[in-house]
Amino acid sequence: MKRIIITLIAAMPMAAFAGTESSDTTFVLGNKQIIVSDSAGKTKVRINTCNGEKLTRTYETEYIDNQEVKRIYVTSPFFPESFIKKKRNPRTYTHYPTLLFGTNMLGGNIMSPGGSTAMHSRDSKSWEWALTVAQMAFNTGSNTSVNLSMNIGQVHNHFQGNYVLATEDGKTFMREIEDGEVKKSYISYTTIRVPIIFEWQRYRLFAGIGASLEYRTNDYARYFIGKKKYTSSRDINIAPLGINMEAYIGVGAFVIYGRAGITPLLKKSNAPECYTFATGIGFTI
């Protein structure tokens, strides 16, 4: 392809000398339309592909001061234009996971990987998932960028034994059920998270570190005795806004991530103090 383009550029003066008044010179090769233009020291070559009556641009390159600037156009009926443009410059592509799944543990202190005695947390059964619905990236160097994303997810934190989370008179506390064996006890809430990440990438390897703002809603506490379900609280005094530290590392489309809450999950004035700590895997699409 490059040899053909160079040949066409060399042929431009002859085409112009032959009496072409237009600033563009057009060649047709099979179903390819090749347009060569030369203006103010800049030579541009565009290639359009003809599919029936539809003409689609598939390649564009410019020669400025003997340097080539090349663009490749990717078209697909499954992706909007904003996603197609992102593919043109791989340096602006964020590797924050599109889909992530992992454990979400409760610790008694900041950066504590679970094991909160005040919450009687059962971290091995606690989990989270999230789906990234929007993202963008800003170049800060040849291998670095600042990425902004937004994801929506769900968190389930489970408790040990017969302990359930309850709220009475505005106060949230752990209560042990005495009349019956609790099969499962947990709290659940929905998250909307906005991470801001500084990312380094080279070839297929990448790593990122940053912070995220987290909005929490739709919270409740629930437990089961046998097959019967009980809702012990529809207001667990959750802190509606939280701040996390985040980091991830990966290769290709595979990501390993970690996140630590630096603000409490629940309102300390009305509930036990606890902090989230999450690890898991994700995939970029």
TrEMBL record:
Keywords: Signal. This is Outer membrane protein beta-barrel domain-containing protein. Residues 1-18 form the signal peptide. It comes from Xylanibacter muris. It comes from the Bacteria.
